[in-house]
């Protein structure tokens, strides 16, 4: 796993620590703000660190930036559980440091040391002639976009993108090859969630234009007449504005509320096994609920993938339970519903139940059932993570 960086304004220190504890991650969490910089060592839900001004500013004011560098850390004598560390941190008085540094310069230094991963938008450009886009990489990089340029209509294997630009070759080269370029557009629509596509060129071919619209192109642009001149500049500006609008939509198709929380979780588990990710999700759920089950939706049963708070944990649940079937069909989560039908070994009639769907393109493929919500717990963060976790847990 590469280092992950971000802003504390988007993801608070308690949220960061809870996610790292749920993932049983080990490494160093570097904090940097106007009060200096410091490191917190993290290992399997334990934290080692001092209550220095940068830590207090990060906790009380959500000030500055962070970077998490995964890896083994040496054992120390003053490790403490994450929850205990947060309780002590909340009680520590906040006193502004008189030796404040330039926060923007510190942030620039941090970003120059570590390539941003979690917050980066990734744009794929597939162009018959990729040369015009070489000069645009720098400008788009300033906007936080990571650009990959391909010279033919093929989708890079095992890579995810947030937008696709398809720039067709000239009419002479394109003749008879329109279906190949439509194929990359359809490939973008098959991603989870579908990737928005800007279609450039080929507008004089009415059939090809029609097929592109029907296949899901989000925007059509005429190709520029050349690489220089006012028309070429207008094209670059227009394409940048169109991409910016598309990329302003929630990252990877999830509501922006809590998006940073979800993106950090996904980055933490980008290289883990489905079993490890399931365990992390259940540990995260255990912060809000006393009991939980993660199940896969099968034709005849709901097959249990893991759980907590049950003794023993059931292996499967039957299909046909009304409250669960409604969530499977509608794909919307159930919040603290008093169930009328007992689910043997899970909840009794009249007990409150929460059900979170895990969805893919074909529909609901899994559920997280939870009960016994702790007072003051907020399950919205869990819901944000679950919204895009189906593939990560092997569903």
Q: What would you say this structure looks like, in words?
A:
The chain is an alpha+beta fold and 395 residues long. It has helices spanning 13-22, 53-61, 82-91, 103-113, 131-134, 136-142, 171-174, 178-189, 206-215, 230-247, 259-268, 274-285, 322-330, 380-386, and strands at 4-7, 26-33, 36-43, 46-48, 65-70, 80-81, 121-127, 145-150, 163-167, 197-200, 219-221, 289-297, 301-308, 316-318, 334-338, 352-360, 363-373. The strands form three sheets. It has a six-stranded antiparallel β-sheet with strand order 1-5-2-3-4-6. The protein has a six-stranded antiparallel β-sheet with strand order 14-13-12-17-16-15. The chain has a five-stranded parallel β-sheet with strand order 8-7-9-10-11, with helices on both faces. Strand 13 (301-308) and strand 14 (316-318) form a beta hairpin. Helix 1 crosses helix 12 (274-285), helix 8 (178-189) runs parallel beside helix 9 (206-215) and helix 11 crosses helix 14 (380-386). Mean pLDDT is 79; it is low at 97-119 and 250-257.
Give the tally of β-strands.
17
- What are the segments in which pLDDT stays under 50 over at least 5 consecutive residues? 97-119, 250-257
Main sheet overview: 6 strands, antiparallel
What is the gyration radius calculated from CA atoms?
24 Å
Oligomeric assembly:
single chain
Whole-number mean pLDDT: 79
| Number of distinct helices | 14
Helix content, binned percent: 25-40%
The rough form would be described as flat
Strand composition percent: 25-35%
- Spatial ordering of strands, largest sheet: 1-5-2-3-4-6
Termini Cα gap: 22 Å
Q: What structural class results from the helix and strand content?
A: alpha+beta
């Amino acid at each position: 796993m590469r280092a992950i960086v971000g802003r504390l304004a988007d993801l608070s220190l308690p949220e960061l620590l809870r996610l790292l504890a749920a993932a049983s991650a080990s490494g160093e969490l570097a904090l940097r703000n106007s009060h200096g910089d410091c490191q917190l060592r993290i290992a399997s839900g334990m934290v080692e660190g001092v209550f220095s001004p940068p830590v207090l500013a990060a906790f009380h004011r959500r000030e500055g930036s962070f970077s998490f560098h995964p890896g083994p850390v040496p054992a120390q004598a003053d490790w403490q559980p994450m929850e205990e560390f947060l309780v002590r941190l909340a009680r520590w008085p906040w006193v502004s440091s008189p030796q404040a540094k330039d926060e923007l310069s510190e942030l620039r230094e941090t970003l120059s040391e570590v390539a941003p991963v979690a917050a980066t938008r990734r744009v794929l450009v597939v162009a018959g002639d990729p040369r015009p886009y070489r000069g645009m990489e720098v400008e788009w990089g300033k906007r936080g976009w990571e650009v990959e340029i391909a010279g033919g209509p093929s989708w890079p294997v095992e890579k995810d993108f947030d937008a696709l630009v398809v720039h067709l070759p000239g009419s002479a080269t394109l003749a008879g090859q329109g279906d190949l370029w439509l194929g990359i557009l359809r490939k973008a629509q098959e991603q989870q969630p579908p990737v928005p596509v800007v279609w450039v060129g080929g507008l004089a071919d009415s059939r090809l234009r029609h097929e592109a619209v029907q296949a899901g192109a989000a925007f059509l642009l005429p190709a520029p007449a050349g690489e220089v001149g006012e028309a070429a500049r207008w094209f670059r500006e227009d394409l940048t504005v169109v991409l910016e609008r598309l990329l302003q939509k929630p990252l990877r198709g999830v509501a922006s509320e809590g998006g940073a929380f979800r993106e950090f979780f996904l980055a933490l588990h980008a290289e883990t096994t489905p079993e490890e990710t399931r365990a992390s999700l259940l540990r995260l759920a255990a912060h809000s609920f006393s009991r939980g089950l993660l199940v896969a939706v099968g034709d005849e049963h709901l097959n249990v993938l893991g759980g907590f708070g049950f003794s023993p944990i059931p292996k499967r649940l039957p299909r046909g339970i009304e409250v669960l079937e409604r969530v499977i069909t509608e794909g919307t989560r159930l919040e603290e519903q008093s169930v009328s039908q007992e689910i043997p070994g899970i909840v009794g009639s009249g007990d409150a139940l929460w059900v979170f769907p895990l969805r893919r393109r074909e529909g609901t493929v899994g559920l997280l059932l939870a009960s016994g919500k702790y007072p003051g717990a907020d399950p919205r963060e869990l819901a944000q993570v679950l919204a895009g976790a189906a593939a990560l847990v092997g569903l």
